Amino acid sequence: MSALPYADFILLGIFALVVGVTIAGALIAALSTRIIRGVSGLMMCCVGLSGLYYFLNSPFLALMEILIYVGAVCVTIVFGVMLSEPDEPAQQETRRHTLLWGGSALLVCLAIVIGIAHLGVSGPWPEPAARVGDGSVAAIGVALLTTYSLPFELISLVLLVAILGALVIARSGRTKE
Amino acid sequence: MNLLQLHQRPAVFLVVAAILLAVGIYGLIRRRTLIGMLIAGELIFSAASLNFMAVNRFFAPDPAVGQIVVLFIMGLAAAEVAIALSIIIAVYRNYRSIRSNDISELKG
Q: DSSP state, A56?
């Protein structure tokens, strides 16, 4: 029993909004000509994705998605845009060329959507025999420090190397000759 | 098919993930700047994460495993973005351009 009247409809509306924001953000990110709009589209897509994670019973990952993607990744890309060109260069290829390559790329992507969606909808997805654990934040923390401690340490090593490598690569060329 | 229980059907999430993957690949093919290609790559990462989460929620015995995998994917994506942006900035300093057509010589 739900307390609110029409609670199911409200839930369906929120779910449709979240799915719409995700797909619209992805389309903006892939199709807009100005790069900064693409970054904003990526932000929209990540906010929608965090809503989808919430619907998938994982509020912790919804929080992490906003924290890491919107807060860190997108802001870093905005810095990259500020330090380089703000715009996508003007179209140089001929119209026929554009039609050919855009059409073939569109064809490939349509094939991917139809193929994978067909797999997802029709494939035999067996229900698990028994469920263990509840997937709460406490369970995630325990699993990270026991079963998955080696990948956890490896990820921290990868992040350290990535930070050092990024500093080294971006710094070269700034020294006075 | 009950339309009101749409958010409890795994197929919806899997189809959204397929759309994200396809849009990301389209962007990766058609974008003409390095940062645009980086953004499209992030979309592909998101598609993978959403797929993991959907399968984790509906078909996995232990719902903590998929969340941990998605956390690892987020960490790898953050590292990838840091490295890729520093490479892009270094390229921009050398070539004064981030168009993928201009960067055509090795050891420039």
A: T
Q: Shortest CB distance from A56 goes to which of B11, B54, B92?
A: B54
Instruction: Name the CA radius of gyration of chain B, rounded.
Output: 18
**In this structure, what token pair is assigned to residue A24?**
């619209």
| Distance between CA atoms of residues A13 and A3, nearest Å | 17
Asked if residues B90 and A172 have their Cβ atoms less than 8 Å apart, the reply is: yes
Fold of A7-89: Four Helix Bundle (Hemerythrin (Met), subunit A) (1.20.120)
| DSSP per position, A121-139 | HHS--PPPS---S---HHH
The ipTM (two decimal places) reads 0.89
**Average of pLDDT values for A59-72?**
92
Using a 10 angstrom Cβ sphere, with 0-12 exposed, 13-18 middle and 19 or more buried, the burial of residue A32 is middle
Inter-chain contacts counted by CB atoms under 8 A, chains A and B: 246
Domain ranges of chain A: 7-89, 136-177
The answer to whether the CB of B94 falls within 8 A of the CB of B103 is no
CATH number of B11-95: 1.10.287.3510
Query: Is the per-residue pLDDT at A176 higher than 60?
Result: no
Q: Is A177 on the interface with B (CB under 8 A)?
A: no
Q: Which A-chain residues 119-158 have CB contacts (< 8 A) with chain B? A: 119-121, 125-136, 139-140, 143-144, 148, 151, 155, 158
pTM, rounded to two decimals: 0.89
B50: β partners: none
